[in-house]
Amino acid sequence: MLDLLRDVLTQRGFVVECMTSGEEALAALGKKGAEPPNLMILDLDFGPGKATGLDVLATLASRQIEVPTILLTGKGTVESAVQALKMGAVDFLEKDSFLEENLTLSIEKAERLVNALTVQRMLREENIALRREHDYIRERTLSRYEIVGEDPAWVAAVNQARALASVPRPVLIVGERGTGKELIAATVHYEGERRNGPFVVVNCAAIAEGLLECELFGQEANAFDGAPFKLGRFEIANHGTLFLDEIGNMSLEFQSKILRIVEYQQFERVQGTETIEVDVRVIAATNADLHAAMEAKRFREDLYDRLAFQTIKLPPLRDRKADIPALAVHFVHRFAAEVPGVEPKAIDEDALSVLQTHDWPGNTRELKRVIESTLCRSTGPTITCADLPAEIRTPNARPVWTGDPCKPFADRIAEVERAILADALARSSGDERSAAQALSLPLAEFRKLRRKHGV
């Protein structure tokens, strides 16, 4: 029988290894580092006192060794066949005059199964790798949104976010630029029932209004000449949270479109006709005075009513200076963890005192930038006052206006505007969009003023 099987299988191109008992097969499969074969043809009965084919299958299953197996018998029964198939055999053949023909068909069946198992194994390994990557990215994301600070107003805002986490309604977060609005939005998301869904962030001030509709709602293929199909952020955030930062920068016309999707969770892609339904929690944020904007008819009252189910107000950093040392140390360690070759350093008491005397108009975002640049610039084992930027060491190092008080009013106003624009550009390292956002100005108006004053 072994000679017959060897000849048939060798003619089909297989590399064949023959063994005379189940114990011998199990010993070979149990060797350390042994690769399981693509196919095993196993006899049911090896004689008195020896392991049966069913015993071999049971042992393989207990060892979690996956081997496609064809079971052979000279006295097959329906019960034995059913039991063998339940234990993982791919086929059950009788040793009769049709064995060679049936074996050929059975091997073809087994080959298809082997291919399917190979694909299944690859998918399982890929799934494990993706799960590890997902867990790593999630861990990095959560570490990015770590809560730091014990100021009562800040703690109250964090507790309010946590209390609203599982309430399926929009939330409005207000505060100056850099006060941590995205951090609070992430707290609402990751501590609520949607924590396993996507958390998608859109800075409405950083995207031109003509592109914002495509960005949020998506577009059909060829919506514009040669434009590809694109999923919008609302679809990407389905079953999760969409954080719309700087909501106050939208035009009235676009605000009506946002109102519809917040209210009905329905929209159409650009140049699309299909109405798409989503399940997205919207969290909006702004550093603008929306009440003043509503009085000036620049912000829709109905959209405000829909977004402001609950409003979370964040304190500026100048009102929570006791948190500055903890925040500074946090930014040191976070930057060192993110950038290879950067080692964390202690900050001496004098430097911490200087940091606490600064008013931080850019709030925690400005503090983070200063700490990171100082850590890169520092050469000693400890960050000292000398390592800090000059504008931090010197109070009021950048006054808005120190001009001639005898100049005409219009000239003095122009000087103030010019100084404000220059100051905003300096704080944003020359980035026009960030500077315009900091001043709550549309980018086009900021550029117009910059040209007017020659900044």
In words, what does this structure look like?
With 455 residues, the protein is of the alpha/beta class. The chain has 4 domains: 119 residues, Rossmann fold (3-Layer(aba) Sandwich), CATH 3.40.50; 171 residues, 3-Layer(aba) Sandwich (Rossmann fold); 76 residues, Helicase, Ruva Protein, domain 3; 45 residues. It contains 19 helices and 14 strands. The chain has a 5-stranded parallel sheet. Strand 2, helix 4 and strand 3 form a beta-alpha-beta unit. Helix 2 packs parallel to helix 3, helix 6 packs parallel to helix 7 and helix 13 crosses helix 15. The longest helix has 46 residues. The radius of gyration is 34 Å and the shape is elongated. The mean pLDDT is 86.
Entry summary:
With about 450 residues, this protein is an alpha/beta fold. It is about 50% helix and about 10% strand.
Question: How are the elements arranged and paired?
Answer:
Layout: H1 2-11, H2 22-29, E1 40-43, H3 53-62, E2 69-73, H4 78-86, E3 91-94, H5 99-144, H6 152-164, E4 171-174, H7 181-190, E5 199-203, H8 209-217, E6 218-219, E7 230-231, H9 233-236, E8 241-245, H10 252-264, E9 266-267, E10 276-277, E11 281-286, H11 290-295, H12 301-307, E12 311-313, H13 324-338, E13 346-347, H14 349-357, H15 363-377, E14 382-383, H16 390-393, H17 409-427, H18 432-438, H19 443-453
